[in-house]
Amino acid sequence: MHARFPVQWVTRPHSDKWHDFRGYAGRVAGGVFKPGDEIMVLPSGFKSRIKAIYGSDLKETNEAFSPMSCTITLDDNIDISRGDLIAKPNNPPVASQDIVAMICWFSPEKSLQVRGKYTIRHTTRDARAIIQQVDYKVDINTLHKIEDDLDLSLNEIGRVRLRTSAPLFHDSYSINRNTGSFILVDEMTNMTVAAGMII
């Protein structure tokens, strides 16, 4: 699996032991990372090498793999923040604002709105998203496509096209469940209204 590390937060412990320590904490979303590996940070595109990896107990480890939580330090002091993605340069994720996905609708109060605006939460990155169109619904009994009724209500599944306010760094769900999935949140109520799998 392709190596993926969404940055949850930047950590700088306040201790003489960790003077000048700058680490990037999160959970490995795919593949394996080891000290010495060349990495690329998205969206900046900056490259560096892994200096050290620390487990949740802040003890050094020789590798980190999914779904391990850890802190990574780099050889270079480059600008990284929450929502950035650390990957390996030889197999970067797709970067796009146009997303095609299968979604399951959760809200009993509201149906999905074409041209509706939502918050999309993908790994550690949030953005705004607009539903551009519904391609079809899926009959959950026969798995046939329904193309003459595109209104998605509670527990219904459909294929949709979204455009996001910032690029998402993703893989298809069939390759990586972590970087290939997302949720949609209603901006008015802050309720989760859908879960999606990127095609």
How is the CATH topology of the largest domain named? Elongation Factor Tu (Ef-tu), domain 3
How large is the count of helical segments? Answer: 0
Order of helices and strands: EEEEEEEEEEEEEEEE
Q: So, the CATH homologous superfamily of the largest domain?
A: Translation factors
Domain unit count: 2
| Distance N to C terminus | 17 Å
Describe the global form: elongated
What value does the Rg take, in angstroms?
19 Å
Uncertain stretches of 5 or more adjacent residues: none
Mean pLDDT: 93
Give the neighbour order of strands across the main sheet. Answer: 1-2-8-5-4-9
Give helix % range.
under 10%
Which range does the strand content fall in? over 45%
Total beta-strand segments: 16
Judging by the overall fold, what is the CATH architecture of the largest domain? Beta Barrel
Class by alpha and beta content: mainly beta
What is the structure about, briefly put?
With about 200 residues, the protein is mainly β.
Overview of the molecule:
The chain is mostly beta strands. It has no helices and 16 strands. Strand 5 and strand 6 form a beta hairpin. The chain is elongated, with a radius of gyration of 19 Å. The two termini are 17 Å apart.
